[in-house]
Amino acid sequence: MKVKCNFCGNMIDDTLDKCPDCGAPNEHVRRVAEGTPKTIEELQAWYESKGLPPAKTTRFFIGEDYKGARAFGIYHDERTGNFVVYKNKDSGERAVRYEGTDEAYAVNELYQRLKQEILEQKRNSANKNGKANNKVRKALATGKNKKEYTLIGRFLNLISPSNYNNFIVKAIMVLIDLALAGFVFLMGVLLLIFIMGMLIIAFEPKEGYYSCAGDYYYRNGYTYNGCNWYEYDQATEEWSDGLEDGQYPSELDKKRKANKLYICENWDSSLNCTDFTTTLQYRDSLAGDKIKTGYYKYDDDIYYHLTSSYDDGWYTYDGYGWTTVNSSELPEDFSHTSVAEDFYYTPVWDESTQFTDFEDTILYAEDKDNWNNDSSSSDSSYDWDSSSDSWDSGSTDWGSDW
């Protein structure tokens, strides 16, 4: 990741002890980021958790002094007590990236290089799939090889007497019948769900104020965090957060019973409660749980929000590097989606006002894929093509020192 040199102002790697331009010490040098492996054992566990292929495929040898050409690795030298991070070039010559007693720093050097290779592998896989899809689209557009790329063409090819016997033809017909039956069944289920949804809406209580056993309740027409009902506290003169099932009277569940408890839709001064539509709870329900991605500024702290979902994807810059932040650790003002966007700063990095660009980090590149894909696309279940002999993405210069 890049940080700004305090002396010459140039952007430099945060892992460098000195600025390569002016020679001044890097006061923001970062040996290892939070949440990253700090020991060889932790790095090996992280590697296995991703479901990566064996070392002979990925060319990354953790805890092993591998002697073969074209390899990255780390090991503990029992003789000297040092941790060694190395790269074996295509010529068989070894380049030592680091040798010393700082295990966390040594591990981080290989960890960052491994994550870079993982990203390259994903890009190559995406490009490979894209080229295959382009080939299909091109064939369909030009009218070439339609027998190969269209459903009807494949079916006609399959039933060709020169290729298959009558048994195969019958099997294909059965599969087509099953597919049609499945389609009809699915449409029936969707229609049933639609009808049930309409019935639920028809029997839902109206939006507005209710009185039950001397207490006031408000039915919000906007569902927020799965809740519609709110209760007024006479002592504090405040409305509660959304009430879950079982936290409010059961009479309010059914429209017929709730109608008897209904007071009005719009607040007026005759009610012994405050106007719910002026509360943060109501404003939050209108805003929903989606907020903008980009940079947020609160006092002197900079935050980055990576995904549209409010509860996930928060990061902050701590002066040395970017780290993840749980939503519970955010400023109190950020706990309301309707207020959080008041602190929205900019969607992109501004070099004149921001110290470092989060979108230039490996953490951003890696987590962006995770947030924008479902769990089936996570690293642990990713198709790493472990059957191939070499995992080299083609981006590695095996003749260089690193």
Features of the shown structure:
402 residues; alpha+beta; 5 domains; 5-stranded antiparallel sheet; 33% helix; 19% strand; flat
Question: Can you give a write-up of this model?
Answer:
The protein has 402 residues and is of the alpha+beta class. The longest helix is centred in the first third of the chain and has 40 residues, at 103-142. It is flat. It folds into five domains: 1-30; 42-144, no CATH class; 158-202; 208-287, no CATH class; 294-379, no CATH class. The protein is built from ten helices and 16 strands. Strand 12 and strand 13 form a beta hairpin. Mean pLDDT is 79; it is low at 143-151 and 373-378. It has a five-stranded antiparallel beta sheet with strand order 10-9-8-7-11. It has a five-stranded antiparallel beta sheet with strand order 15-14-13-12-16, with no helix packed on it. It has helices at 40-49, 55-58, 103-142, 146-149, 151-158, 166-202, 255-261, 280-287, 337-340, 362-371; strands at residues 2-4, 11-13, 60-62, 71-76, 83-88, 94-100, 208-212, 215-224, 227-233, 238-239, 262-264, 294-298, 301-305, 314-317, 322-325, 344-346. It is 33% helix and 19% strand.
Spatial strand order of the main sheet: 10-9-8-7-11
Distance from N terminus to C terminus (CA atoms, Å) equals: 17 Å
Structural category is alpha+beta
Largest sheet: 5 strands, antiparallel
Helical percent range? 25-40%
Number of helices: 10
Number of strands: 16
Strand content: 15-25%
Tell me the overall shape.
flat
